[in-house]
């Protein structure tokens, strides 16, 4: 039987680092710590080595299609497939509440559009029964939206990737041409770019699960973490890693296309009137 393989994007620090740590402790297989910066990635591996853990390192910049393709080619050649994929890599400029078009586009390119390239190159390598965890956010719940056109589109039973792309493009065009409306979002549209990217990620989770029935794909809000992206966070990333690893190693394989809260509660993503949306703290 082929050796099991797990990979965690953006894992040289923060939540990703602790997911790798936990997988090294409990996953029966090889664990890849992925980072876009080789020096920082290798330093993270050395830290884990000092704890007696032995992850492998591979460079991966999720915003670079060629980087994703190279990693996919490496996995295919060396292992033949993947059993676990954690899409953790993300960015957020906490200080810029209403970003420029360039800032909004960068957030969406990293947090959402990279997942389309990951699907293209890495999903064909996912073995039967593989588990994918998309690390979403409180920003990724539909209750962050107030625009009826977007809500009607995203709640369609036959939602497709094209619909999600249209939603993303609508938002970006509004920032670009000066027609952005705060009232299209909860909380006066603060960090609308992050809400859009994470809603798109969570929506893509649902679309992909319909397409890939032989694997489990779930989105999760890991808690309001104390990280570089959220200096006012309250939850320790090491503690938050446990719920990710629960989804990978312990949850039923029949758990598919869900949105899990950090408490392991399954939240209704379609509850547009729910109090799940992100509230920015100045």
Strands, helices and their partners?
Blueprint: E1 5-8, H1 14-26, E2 30-35, H2 38-50, E3 56-59, H3 65-78, E4 82-87, H4 101-122, E5 126-135, H5 148-154, H6 161-176, H7 192-211, E6 216-220, H8 237-249, E7 259-260, E8 266-267
Parallel strand pairs: 1-2, 1-4, 2-3, 4-5, 5-6, 6-7
Antiparallel strand pairs: 7-8
Helix pairs in contact: 1-8, 3-4, 4-6, 4-7, 6-7
Folded structure, characterized:
There is one protein chain. The chain has helices at residues 14-26, 38-50, 65-78, 101-122, 148-154, 161-176, 192-211, 237-249, and strands spanning 5-8, 30-35, 56-59, 82-87, 126-135, 216-220, 259-260, 266-267. The protein is α/β, with parallel strands linked by helices and 282 residues long. The chain has an 8-stranded mixed β-sheet with strand order 3-2-1-4-5-6-7-8, sandwiched between helices. Helix 8 links the parallel strand 6 (216-220) and strand 7 (259-260). Helix 4 (101-122) runs antiparallel to helix 6 (161-176) and helix 6 packs antiparallel against helix 7. It is globular and about 50 Å long. The mean pLDDT is 95.
Oligomer: single chain
Mean pLDDT: 95
Helix amount: 40-55%
> Biggest β-sheet, characterized?
8 strands, mixed
Shape label: globular
Overall strand count: 8
Estimated radius of gyration: 18 Å
What is the number of helical segments per DSSP (H or I, 4+ residues)?
8
Spatial order of the strands in the main sheet? 3-2-1-4-5-6-7-8
End-to-end C-alpha gap: 53 Å
Short synopsis of the structure:
The chain is of the alpha/beta class and 282 residues long.
Characteristic key phrases:
282 residues, alpha/beta
């Amino acid at each position: 039987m082929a050796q099991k393989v797990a990979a965690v994007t953006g894992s040289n620090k923060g939540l990703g680092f602790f997911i790798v740590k936990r997988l090294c402790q409990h996953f029966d297989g090889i664990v890849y710590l992925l980072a876009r910066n080789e020096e920082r990635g290798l330093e993270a591996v050395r830290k884990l080595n000092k704890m007696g853990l032995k992850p492998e390192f591979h460079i991966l910049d999720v915003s670079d299609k060629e980087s994703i393709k190279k990693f996919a080619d490496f996995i295919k050649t060396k292992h033949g497939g993947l059993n676990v994929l954690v899409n953790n890599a993300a960015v957020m400029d906490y200080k810029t509440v209403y970003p420029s078009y360039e800032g909004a586009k960068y957030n969406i390119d990293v947090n959402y559009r990279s997942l389309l390239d990951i699907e293209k190159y890495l999903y064909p390598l996912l073995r039967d029964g593989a588990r994918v965890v998309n690390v979403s956010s409180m920003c990724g719940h539909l209750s962050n939206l107030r625009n009826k056109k977007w809500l009607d589109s995203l709640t369609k039973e036959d939602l497709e990737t094209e619909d999600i792309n249209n939603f993303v493009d609508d938002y970006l065009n509004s920032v670009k041409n000066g027609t952005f409306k705060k009232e299209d979002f909860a909380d006066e549209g603060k960090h609308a770019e992050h809400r859009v990217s994470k809603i798109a990620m969570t929506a893509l989770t649902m679309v992909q699960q319909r397409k890939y029935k032989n694997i489990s794909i779930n989105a999760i809000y890991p808690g309001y973490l104390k990280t570089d992206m959220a200096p006012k966070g309250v939850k320790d990333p090491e503690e938050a890693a446990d719920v990710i690893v629960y989804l990978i190693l312990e949850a039923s394989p029949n758990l598919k296309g869900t949105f899990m809260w950090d408490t392991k509660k399954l939240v209704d993503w379609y509850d547009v009137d729910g109090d799940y949306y992100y509230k920015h703290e100045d």
